[in-house]
Amino acid sequence: MAHTYTVALLGNPNCGKSSLFNQLTGLRQKVGNFPGVTVDKKVGSLPRGEGPPIKVIDFPGTYSFYPTSIDERIVVQALANPQDDNYPDAIIYVADVTKIDKHLLLLTQIRDLGLPVVLALNMMDVAEEQGLQVDVAGLSGALGVPVAPVSGRTGAGLEHLKAAIRAMANGEAGQAAASPFYRMPEPHLNLARAAAEIVPGANTYQGLLIAHHREWLPFLSGAQQQLLGSLAEEAGFVPLRAQVEETMQRFDRFVPLVKKHISEPKAADSALTSRLDQVLTHRFWGPVVFFGLMLLVFQAIFAWASYPMDLIDAGFGMAGEWVRATLPSGWVADLITDGLLAGLGGILIFIPQIAILFFLIALLEEVGYMARAAYMFDQLMQSFGLNGRSIVALVSGGACAIPAVMSTRTIGNWKERLITILVTPFISCSARIPVYTVLIGFVVPPQQVLGIFNLQGLAFMGLYLLGIIAALGAAWVFKQILQTREHSFLMLELPEYRAPVMRNVGITVWEKVRAFVWEAGRIILAISIVLWLLASYGMPGKMQQAEVAAVVEAETSGLSEKDANDLIAARRIEASFAGQLGKSIEPVIAPLGFDWKMGIAIITSFAAREVFVGTMATIYSIGSADDEFSVRERMAQERDPVTGRPVYDLPTSLALLLFYVFAMQCMSTVAVVKRETKSWKWPLIQFTFMTALAYLSALGAYQLLS
Amino acid sequence: MVATTNQTKPLAAFKEGEAGIIAGFSNDQLGSKLIAMGILPGARLRLVRKAPFGGAYYVASGNFRVALRKSEAAGVLLS
Asked: Which parts of the sequence bind Mg(2+) 2 (chain A) (predicted)?
């Protein structure tokens, strides 16, 4: 296979790297994983004109080659080892020109790797506003790397940067720096050279990094780690001391260069951020604004999303009718309408809510607000064994636990990170919305209270609140159980507030919605079809037997034609494979007030919660052939065959709701937790305690109310 | 890294709005992290505000802002 020219995009957190990545690659990007962890690896491609496109890897933002979180370790792991799959051919280093006196530390380290580097001087638009004068040619000469001034927000200077990258790929420009920036003391130099011998292709600075990080670098064998340990001891190498000496020498050398070629800003910089923070991080108003924003998010999900959702619902209704009218009746038409379309509709209807939720969360992240939330709630989070950064995971958990669990990788402390991962799935995610929507009407009437509040809306908030309480309570319990001596840090940069780049927000929403439709959608669709099969077929003869018995029963008790048809349909599904499956778990769930139909839904929605609604749709549309109701209305019609009372009465519906608030009904989250914690132990523990809490609370609610 | 002896005061003892020059760090691990972020000895640091309930410290050095815990602020010595 021909070698694909690969460039790595690197820079400090908040340097505007993602904007630039989106500018360079547009929608030509894929999200993958770095080996061993689920840290998002965004890979895009940049057209080269002639020849194959250039591969661009977006690495996590990092301050230096001395990492403090898993995110940052990825960078060192890939760049210290020339044999690594993600080892690039060249590097684009992104620095915020308004913070250049801090952002060049990592550049000087990267320069010492011996790879060609282009410095993309980002935020030039802001620099111009502030009256910052930049001598590009002088800076380039002083640092020994090509410099391209750009703005990831406006796109200015982008063509120049692209040209510089293409020139590097064609071998026309971008030589590795002639001499290293950092001058190591003699004993360290010898150690670094010895370490570089171990890894083929490594240069001296990579050798130093390998020796420094020997204890956790995955590409070193146990014997190599031991060898490096004794070499370091001989050289009198004290890692922390060496790291500080190196860092200080780099600053001492590049800060004068920066001062010489970039003027001090004239305008009072970032005054807007200071003024906004007077309110947004205020002792009292800060938290008030935070909860106000969260309320706004809820309002958006429930009020604004209903219009497009109604449209989608109507669209699927029409499609179903069209299929029924066009295709001859038979199993093909049944499969398409009851299996395929019912399942597909169950997926697509949630796109508006998911898109709105991700849009708002991406917006808060993009403008720089999330770091403020972490600052304000760090103390509170700590009392529950969490970190201020956990608030980002908990808020994102309202959209989906999967990206939320992945966002915990910025938490350096293992205990805090683990607890955040374990409790985040308690936060009601968007997949619970459909379940809540369907069931809540059976629990509370759609009344207005106090003139402005909708009772169902309040009940919705109550369910979310319950999830939050469960998350914090569980965190507190884990805090008491888990022990660690590892030091915990907040030390979080509070970036300037910036107007959001809508392209970035749009790309995030697009990615998440696409992932939902493809990843979750495939599962939901497959389950819908399997379910249709299970509900339509049974053990040979059983379903016919049930049908014949039902016909006789209907005749003897003189039922109307419609009631007779319902009875026959109900008896048929009872005798089907799905019915057998549900019946087999009925003894376990009967104390919660659940019947075997709900049993089927609980089993299938172990894959994903939103499957619950699709399952209900499939079961009940098969149950009654002349179905013209939506799922909710159909469920309201459901009567207990013995007592004649509604099946979805208050105790049962409340028990079901509570079950779905607490239960870990999501295969994908289990998989992600397994990958993030690198063992089955934690996802199993998580699954067990969540299911236990779900079962017990549903049991309590049903037994008390019925 | 070593704190100078003449009249240094930990950041944790500062009042809101008070500023000082970083003299050093009393904790090497903490110091190394702050240095990597570009908060170096000799830099001017201002305590902008404190979060409620003994929470985090909002600290600024020029246009660079960072949130530190009280325990972290205790390790930064200013003169």
From this structure: 25-26
